[in-house]
Amino acid sequence: MELSPRSPEAKLGLKVEDLWEIQEPQLTPSEKLNSCFESIPVSSFPPAPSSEVIEINSDSSLAEAVRILSEHKILSAPVRNVEAPEDASWIDRYIGIVEFAGIVVWLLHQSEVAATTMDGSFFENLASSEFYKDTKVGDISGTFRWAPFLPLQKSDSFLTMLLLLSKYKMKSLPVVDLGEQKIDNIITQSAVVHMLAECVGLHWFENWGKKKLSDLSLPIMKPNQLIKVHEDEPVIKAFKLMREKGIGGIPVVEGGGTKAIGNISIRDVQFLLTAPEIYKDHSSTTAKNFLTSVRKYLEDHHDASPMLRGTITCRRDNTVKEVILKLDSEKIHRIYVVDNDGNLEGVITLRDIISKLVHEPPHYFGDFFDGVVPLPLNSRV
C-alpha cells in the first residue's frame, strides 16, 4: 500500500514522523510515541468522510434511532436535547450517546420482561411493540454504561483520545467546538485504525507495525476464554451473551468444533429490527440459520457487508501492520486468530490494536473525568 500525500490521515502521520525524529534518543520507542501523540491536538484529526455529524433528537423513538443508525451505517450518534434553549451551552445541548449496543441492552431486558406475552415471531412482535415504537431515545440515554457522553475539546491531545478509545473502552468520542457550542467531529476506533493504515511506510509506524502479534501478547484472551456460540444454538443466545459480557461481537463455531463459520456483531441486531421477516421463531432460529438468512437478505438487496465475506482471520505470527491493513480494508471491528488447522485461538479488536500503541503515564488524567455529564454510575470510566 502506497502512502498518499493527499490523504489527510497520511499528512497526520507525517506530523507524527517529524515529531518522532526529534525525540530524545534515550527514550524507548513506546515513550517516543507517547510523546508524539501528546504533542498533537485532537483538532488535527480529519473529519469523517461525510463531514456531517449525525445527531439524533432526544424525542426520537428507538425505532427511528435504529433506522437512522442503519441508513448512515454508523454504530452510534450523540443525542441532542430538544428541550434545551437555543442559547444553551454544549453541556446542556447533549444528553448522551445512543448506539446499537445500548438499544440492544435495553430491548433484551424489556423482551425478557415481556416474554410471557410474546410467542411465535419474537422479534417481529418486538419490532412492532408499543414500547419499541413509543420509547424515546432520551428515556434511555445515560442509563447504560456502554456509551457515556464523554466529549473532547479540540485542544485535548491525541494521547488522551487514544487512551479513552483503548484503555477506557470508549467506542466513539465527540469533539466539541467551544466557540460554536456544537460537536465538530466524532472520532471512532475505526477512524483511528484507518489513520494507522494510511501511515504505512513511515518510520515510526514501521518500527511498531513490524512486530508480530505474539510479540505484543496478542491475542489477550486465551482460547478457552473466548466467548462464542455454536451454530446450532439459538441466535438470541449470541445477543444475550454480548449483552452480559459487554462485547460487540461473537464468533459462530461449527457444532462441537472450534472452527468459526461466521461472526455476529451487535450491529447485526438491526436486521432483526428492520427486517424481522428473517427471524421467524426465536426458539428455533439458530445462529447458523441467522447468518444464512442475513447473507441472503444482503445479496437480495445488493448491500455490501463484511458478513458476505465470511470469517476474517489471521495468525499469531502475523504483524500488527498486516492486521491493521486487513481490519481497515475489510471494514471490520474484530479479527479472529486461528492456528494452522483453522481452530480458534483468540480474537483481536480495534481496541486491542490501539491499546498497544500507547500507554497511560502515572496520574495522567487527573480530574479529567470530573463533571462528565451524564456518566452512568456503573461506568468503567
UniProtKB/TrEMBL annotation:
Keywords: CBS domain, Repeat. It comes from Nelumbo nucifera. The keyword Iron does not apply. Pfam families: CBS (PF00571). Residues 49-113, 221-284, 307-365 form the CBS domain. PANTHER family: AMP-ACTIVATED PROTEIN KINASE, GAMMA REGULATORY SUBUNIT (PTHR13780), CBS DOMAIN-CONTAINING PROTEIN (PTHR13780:SF36). SUPFAM superfamilies: CBS-domain pair. It comes from the Eukaryota. InterPro entries: AMPK_gamma/SDS23_families, CBS_dom, CBS_dom_sf. This is SNF1-related protein kinase regulatory subunit gamma-1. PROSITE patterns: CBS.
